Amino acid sequence: MEREDSPYCQCLYYASNALARIMTRMADDAFASVGLSSSYAFLLMTVNNKPGIQPKEISQKMQLTPSTVTRLIEKMEVRGMLERQSSGRATTVFPTPQSLELQPKILLAWRQLYEKYSGILGEQEGIVLTASIHEATKKLE
């Protein structure tokens, strides 16, 4: 049975949200192998790659609001994956040994996610689509 297109498929808002939902499901499935949702996996990758990073920089790199980043960090602190250190008004975030140990598995899951959507879209199409979405995001910000 052929799937009928939505009457909203020509709407950028609708189409981008539909794509985001599909990609979130795919990413969450990929990162489930390491016991993380995609948001937590990308947070750990960000902190593992730059120990001592400030939450504001995490927000910028992950394109998330500061309050969302704070909530994600707090949950990873509870799980023993991250530590926050304060010095005056500045807060920095550090990975724990548990987080660093998980990094190779996170990177493997990320690679598997890339391979899955590249296998569906075609590698070049995925690269072009990613670049187009990134450019559109920068323009619309």
Short description:
With 141 residues, this protein is mostly helical. It has helices spanning 12-31, 38-49, 55-62, 66-78, 97-121, 123-140, and strands at 82-87, 90-95.
Describe the structure.
- This protein has 141 residues and is mainly alpha-helical.
- It has a single domain (12-130), classed as Arc Repressor Mutant, subunit A.
- Helix content is 68%, strand content 9%.
- The chain contains six helices and two strands.
- The protein has helices at 12-31, 38-49, 55-62, 66-78, 97-121, 123-140, and strands spanning 82-87, 90-95.
- A two-stranded antiparallel sheet has the order 1-2.
- A hairpin with a 2-residue loop joins strand 1 (82-87) and strand 2.
- It is globular and about 55 Å long.
Features:
141 residues, mainly alpha, Arc Repressor Mutant, subunit A, two-stranded antiparallel ribbon, 9% strand, globular
